[in-house]
Amino acid sequence: MSELLDLGNKVALITGAGQGVGRQIALHFAAHNAAGIVVNDYFLDRAEQVAQEINASGGKALAAQADVTSLASVKAMVTKAEQAFGPIDVLVNNAGNAGAVPDPDARKPFWETGPEVWNSFIGVNLYGVINGAAACIPRMIERKGGRIITVISDAGRAGEAGLEVYSGAKAGAAGFTRGIARSLGRYQITANCVAIAATMTPAIEARLKANPELQKKMMEKYVIRRPGQPTDVANMVLFLASDASAWITGQTYPVNGGFSFAL
Question: Vertex 153, ends 178 and 171: CA angle to 5°?
């Protein structure tokens, strides 16, 4: 059964893969024989570190700097990736949060800010997904196959106080993904989302370690009373990238320790 998860003939592009969840997805793909892994990050040095880690272990990876909020930047990255490995088979839209350089006012109530702050969430979490899809879909259609996987948040499913614009952007990304799933199924291209809750990315880990009482209070809302690990998310993304998920599209899979339930 392990062969079902083999990615031996697939080239993958993972956005925001210089750390945290994206890094672990890249490592998972490498461990399952991806033909090539494009490690994207806004900061090239972070992407290079992950690519070097994969190459040192015998995998094939390329570091690619790009700003996912810019369609031109994403298209240039995809061209570079195709020159190195060939067309993208798997697109993982993982870049998120408040963007590479969060606005200092991002945590203020949204009604006390304005579009310049709102766009820090909308740009990466919604337009970043649209830009990645727009850059990769044409070749997927030509080749009649592909996987598009978007990492969203339970904030997009249930809403989160204090992160209203972020919640809206993630919900928008999920709606967009369902739309392209309907458009692209005839070409054997699937599109799905993975919705995550509190996961031990560098930022969250630092926050929780600095305040153990905060972690205890947060975990009271979870059926499985621990924060998520990047491996928890990467396991689901690997499944959706593999041939094991060939007849699954337009879905959102919560990987959230029971923070919220779905039918």
Answer: 45
**Is position 166 annotated as part of the catalytic site?**
yes
Both tokens of 156, joined, read 């997009």
Q: What is the pLDDT of residue 211?
A: 86
Cα(220)–Cα(247) distance, integer angstroms: 36
* CA 114 distance to own-chain centroid: 26
CA atoms within 13 A on the CB side of 170: 27
185-209 residues labelled b (16+ CB within 10 A) or e (exposed): eeeebbbbbbbbbbbbbeebeeebe
Residue 220 covered by a domain? no
Residue numbers of the domain that contains 53: 2-199+229-255
* Domain-located, residue 209: no
Residue reference for tokens 């991002």? 106
SS3 state of residue 239: helix
Active-site annotation holder among 42, 127, 166, 253: 166
State how many domains the chain has: 1
- pLDDT per 10-residue tile (average), the chain, 263 residues: 85 98 98 98 98 98 98 98 98 91 86 94 98 98 98 94 96 98 98 95 82 87 93 98 98 96 85
